[in-house]
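Fold this complex.
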Amino acid sequence: DAGVTQSPTHLIKTRGQHVTLRCSPISGHKSVSWYQQVLGQGPQFIFQYYEKEERGRGNFPDRFSARQFPNYSSELNVNALLLGDSALYLCASSLEGQGRSHPNYEQYFGPGTRLTVT
Amino acid sequence: RKEVEQDPGPFNVPEGATVAFNCTYSNSASQSFFWYRQDCRKEPKLLMSVYSSGNEDGRFTAQLNRASQYISLLIRDSKLSDSATYLCVVNTNAGKSTFGDGTTLTVKP
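Structure:
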């Protein structure tokens, strides 16, 4: 079975531009989460989506938005790019979403999209 | 103070050694806990979930101490291939996952 896939693998953008990153979860997984990872730090949680609804949001500005489609794939959008947005963007999928009725879930990561903002 | 804290290391150990990592968390409402390993410039890979009763998978043992709000990972008989960064993850039931910044392990021949 295919794992989590992300596209593109690398991207170079200029300050002020907009970017869309894409993620396809493992077949049968209904939840997708997005993370930002900069060198020397752990992944920082951006969003979690489950069954097309936002289930969790991290401390990121409104320039960051996401959505999940009926086939459970997801897009992360970042507007008005800043130099500080340069990072590895990771997508993770899980069978279920994190919530009161699902206290445990295991996330599987895609290879990431490396975004460079110049 | 960070929500999830790990000793960054690095831990440099010889092959065959036993090494332990701790991870502390501040949110007492945290519900589930995991360890991941991440190789240089690769994505994190799930190593193991951490259950309240503790759990073992081969050379790896994970423990949870809710009273003191920490989780631990013990690696026995270290192999060269265990060299990586080990990340702990703490989830709340509000849909949020928090990663530590990782502990770097280097196993030397």
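Chain B touches chain A at residues 4, 31-32, 34, 42-46, 49, 87, 89, 91-102 (CB under 8 Å).
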